[in-house]
Amino acid sequence: MLNFTHDPAAQSWVAAAQAPGSDFTLQNLPLGIIVRDGSDKHPRGGVAIGDQVVDLAHLAASGLLVGPAKAACCAAADATLNTFMAMGREGWQPLRHALFKLLSSTVDAATQEKVRACMLPLSETTMKMPVEVRNYTDFYTSRHHAVNVGRVIRPENPLTPNFQWLPIAYHGRASSVVLSGTGFRRPNGQSRTANNQPPAFGPSRRLDFELEMGFFVGPENMLGEPLSVSQARDRIFGMCLLNDWSARDHQFWEMDPLGPFLGKNFCTSISPWIVTMEALEPYRAAFDRPATEPQPLPYLDDATDRASGSIDVRLEVSVQSRRHRAQHLPGDRITATSFRHQYWTVAQMLAQHTVGGCNLQSGDLMGTGTISGPTPSEAGALVELSVGGTRPVSLPGTGETRTFLEDGDSVSIKGWCEKPGFARIGFGECRGEVLPAIDFGMA
After folding, report:
1. Residues ≥6 apart with Cβ < 8 Å to 297
2. Is the peptide bond before 257 cis (omega within 30 degrees of 0)?
3. pTM score of the predicted model
4. Which residue in 94, 19, 116, 121 sits closest to 423, CA to CA?
5. Residue 185 forms beta bridges with which residues?
6. Domain boundary among 80, 102, 128
7. Among 288-297, 317-326, 425-434, where is mean pLDDT lowest?
8. Per-residue pLDDT reduced to its tens digit, 287-300
9. Dihedrals phi, psi of 393, to nearest 5 degrees
10. Confidence band of 237 (pLDDT split at 50, 70, 90)
């Protein structure tokens, strides 16, 4: 699956693409939806490169593209990426390859000037939702996370019997998926602090983040048409960062016997740039299941997926409090891990979603579930890091501690891929701030 767009020696004539630590290198070329700051508020597709963005509507009209690449560019220039995602690899790859060539340092000066006329500084653009999210499903696929949380709510039996046999998920709320940078209100709901006592109504006192990634469906499948793991792999367009904000006190009270409801449906944040699966190919890794544990049933097993189903995306979470901002301090990093630790692959997740006949739509968003690593410092949520609120997490920059999030806290998730022999690619940032709850006067 590797090709010339993965060449680590390739450089762009956009100098910032080679800057140390740049997320948006020539080998990345993530897609998003932009508007130009000022009077032009028409959303259209864009591709990030260094500190610039290629305006795909202008590129489509420039005459620089022909054939499948031009058709794909016209689709990607729309106000959302749904239509472009529906094209599949026949559209995705020609556009990526054409952009790589146009932005490469080997292109002639005249072509550079034509492409430059189609570009904007990232600093002069505002990001919009990359897709119209019609459906959102959130999985639960980190064994380390499941055991850590299970020990908080079911100490005697932390891992449920089904976890090692299928990718568990619930259908989330698409209407409350928001773009990075959007603040949200602390949710109100019911919780119970003691057995045999009536529940109380009020703002969540155990508000949490969840370090996740999201992935987007490309071509649709028909109702009643399940996808194999290999078919599912080919239908995943790309990935983003995702924060599945969680009200733990509301969640744990309402999850007996059904799945999450108010504890999850108030907000889910995603990063604005989507990194394509083709860009992620160099960072794939073997999907290893220990021989002592149950092996996937045949419909979830696939030789290619075993060889390269995992993806090594490095992830970190920082918390910036009001006190940090008052002192002009960045947030403190409180955890770091890798997506390669997930117990199930994204292809297995998507195949499981369709096995009963569920029809997926282009642009559907899937959350991977909280991403936690094998050590305590790699936990992907405060409920794990603080062991259910019993061990405060330090914010050394200000001397504060947290067991759960407080009003004014801003949580930032960052992700990137790098390894010897390949260029670094990044996802940017997924950030959200906790705003005070609405006072119902009924607590």
Report:
1. 165
2. yes
3. 0.97
4. 19
5. 435
6. 128
7. 288-297
8. 989 899 999 999 99
9. -95, 130
10. very high
Tell me the average pLDDT across 62-69. 98
pLDDT of residue 442: 60
Q: Which range marks the domain in which residue 66 is found?
A: 4-128
* Tokens representing residue 139 in the block: 């999985």
**Structural domain total, the chain:** 2
Q: Residue 4 carries which DSSP code? A: G
Catalytic residues: 145
Q: How many CA atoms lie within 13 A of 190 on its CB side?
A: 10
First-residue to last-residue Cα distance in the chain = 57
pLDDT of 443 > 60? The answer is: no
Contact between 283 and 247 (Cβ < 8 Å) = no
How far is Cα 393 from Cα 396, in angstroms, rounded to an integer? 9
163 lies in the same domain as 272: yes
Residue 76 and residue 166 in one domain: no
Partners of 214 in the β-ladder = 240, 367
pLDDT in tens, 140-161: 999 999 999 988 878 888 899 9
Distance CA 101, CA 114 (A): 13
Q: What is the CATH number of the domain that holds 97?
A: 2.30.30.230
Tell which residue, 17, 222, 170, 176, has the closest CA to residue 99. 17
Cα 68 from Cα 88, distance rounded (Å): 12
The confidence score (pLDDT) of residue 193 equals 80
**Three-state DSSP state, 369:** coil
Q: CB within 8 A of 86, min separation 6: which ones?
A: 218, 219, 220, 362, 363
In this structure, the answer to whether residues 149 and 101 fall within a common structural domain is no
Query: Which of 78, 107, 128 is at the close of a domain?
Result: 128
Let me know if residue 441 belongs to a domain: no
Residue type, 170: Y
